[in-house]
Amino acid sequence: MTENIQSVKLIDGFIDNIWLEKGLSKNTLSAYRQDLINFSNWLKKKNLIEVKKTELLDYLSYRLKQGYSSRSTARSLSSLRAFYSYLLKNSYINDDPTAKIDSPKLGHSLPKVISEIDVEKLLNSPKVKEPLGLRDRSMLELLYACGLRISELITLDLLNVNLRQGVIKVIGKGSKERLIPMGEEAMNWVEKYISYGRPELENESFNTSILFLNRRGKPMSRQAFWYRIKHYAFESGIKASLSPHTIRHAFATHLINHGADLRTVQLLLGHTSLSTTQIYTEVARQRMKELHSEHHPRG
Questions:
Q1: Residue 3's pLDDT is what?
Q2: pLDDT tens digit string along 142-168?
Q3: What residues make up the domain containing 204?
Q4: Are 42 and 187 members of one domain?
Q5: pTM of the model
Q6: Which of 250, 261, 233, 227 is nearest to 110 (CA)?
């Protein structure tokens, strides 16, 4: 019992120290504390100072066998690294038992992708006889047709929309420019919005060349469009959790599903590295497995 109290005191000292040094949030400090208490409870009566590398490895193995995710176990190890680094620095221990312990491999979490049917439902949801509905339809069509980031969509300038050639010029991350074809459907809706919707939203006292405007004639915000997508998802009965980035994922995955090569998708998305784009081939492959399992008689 005494040893457990000693361990708790060490944890308290560590938490106070990182709070003073790094000014971490209460939630982060609480997560650190809980990770360390969990480990201390697993040790039972053994003091945290006496821990050896083999015991740490046994604990990590125990967590994985109990069904804890690799990500959760990696975070637990990160807490233990910080704790034992603190003990070493303050001469409580002579050797760091976490040294040379590899973190669990996390792998890549696959992005959530909605079906083409759900995308169609979403695109058809806005009431296009109203200026705001026409704007929202144009934004959704452009988002899906071009795979834009939300920041690229809301900062798109009228001068960078070429309806004659059917392309837009996008300023992406690192101020890198790229030209993206709109496709006939998106181009038609953008043209309608520029002709009939945007003039109704313009504000004479606020002059801007940003394409998409709110009801006060000012540029749309990220939050406002995020809420519009949530609203339309609810209206159209889509159960999946949607965000602007979900539509970007759908753009890339649906292109690959229909035979687009990876290099082309990389250029359209504005990815610097091809390896970033490769995750969409895994999404498509995973979907094929699901369809096979669902529909094949021996699936």
A1: 47
A2: 999 999 999 999 999 999 999 999 999
A3: 116-295
A4: no
A5: 0.60
A6: 250
